[in-house]
Amino acid sequence: MHLPRTLLTPLSSSTRRPLTVHTPLFVRRIHISQSFSSKGNEEESDHDAVLRNIIQQTTLGNKSFSYIQRGVEEVKEGGDEEPTNLLITLDALGTLYEIKNGDLGQEYTQVAKECGVKGLLAGDVAKSFKEAFKELSASHPNYGYATGMKPKEWWEQVTIKTFKPLIPFPVPFPPNLAESLWTHFSSNAAYSIFPGTMPFLWNIKDLKGLATRTRKGQAGWKFRTITIGIISNSDDRIIDVLTSMGIHATHRAISLDGGLDHLPPKSFSKKGKELYKSLKGAGVASRASRRAIRKISETKNEVLGNDQVVDFVATSCGLGVAKPQREIFETAKKAAARLIAMRFGEEEAEKGWEWYHVGDNRREDVVGAYEAGGVGILLDRNKEIGETETIVEGTEEGVGYKTMVVGDLREVAEFTEGLSILYKAGGEKVPYASPRG
């Protein structure tokens, strides 16, 4: 028996397609107990091969997910029962979206041109930006968090240090350049969403519905809750960027104990705006009716999902810790447990957890997740055809981690049940010889 593939359209397509729910985990156990031999098995899928290679070399063990009942209480460990809570965290830039055309220098050069600075080369701007960013990151880490500098001031200094060496005398430094760049990079004006991002979130929304039905006794799926979080080494403008792309984050992590701040939508849904306009035209609109419509719109967004909903965002600027530091991942896990406790009760949050983090950076995302007790999945859109796993260098000398490689986020949503096996086998340490050595 083989793990089903459900990509009903090419991966380059952003068209929504039906999601096939994978077979229950007990079927997986029957599958993995069978003889694994790649020879002569022409029907073996890429993901079967990943599981076969990892399971053959790893003793399966049941990992526990640290759970925080409240921020001030001690950490409780999940028992031996099968996990029923699923947490998937994602990197942002490079995973959900990218700089337009993949060219930061071009974006900076274009904004500078609009502010009156002409004749600059994108390559020169990109090089100068890299140096300025490195300098400010060293003197004022985490976008100024470590030294009390506000993020906007931090980026203003980056702008000055980027452009001052390039603007020829006697051209004055544009007084609106820093503000223009700050605004430009606060929305999708500077970014392009990857084709697989929205279909991935659509699939996750479908799976959340299945988890809800399971929790209510109407279905028999493995997971009873699904939580989606974003962990980003960035400032909090990421929330506005996501909103501009139609992705609404409902909460922001504000403290290392998993404390959360609720983030209501900043505007009415389209239907909400139409309703208020009709009431206003009829002369019966009021502040109370506006507030009521907004509340309904927010509830619909969170429960039914007008936008694609992310449960929380954790940023390095907001927390003072950055990937691959263990603390930012631990904060995300605590925030997830807190959300489930708030929504469905502490008993639900105390059940077992599985956690996966997906990102495009080997050190920050994959190694960081493994060393924080989870499973890292490498997103590599340029991976070789047929490549399903790789070894990433760990922080311990001579040691690496075997990890799954995907070329599109949809593969993560469509392989949810199979990931359970990776979770038990994940974190396998293997010898690693650095190419630098």
From TrEMBL:
<dbReference type="GO" id="GO:0005634">
    <property type="term" value="C:nucleus"/>
</dbReference>
<dbReference type="InterPro" id="IPR036412">
    <property type="entry name" value="HAD-like_sf"/>
</dbReference>
<dbReference type="InterPro" id="IPR023214">
    <property type="entry name" value="HAD_sf"/>
</dbReference>
<dbReference type="InterPro" id="IPR044924">
    <property type="entry name" value="HAD-SF_hydro_IA_REG-2-like_cap"/>
</dbReference>
<dbReference type="InterPro" id="IPR051828">
    <property type="entry name" value="HAD-like_hydrolase_domain"/>
</dbReference>
<protein>
    <submittedName>
        <fullName>Uncharacterized protein</fullName>
    </submittedName>
</protein>
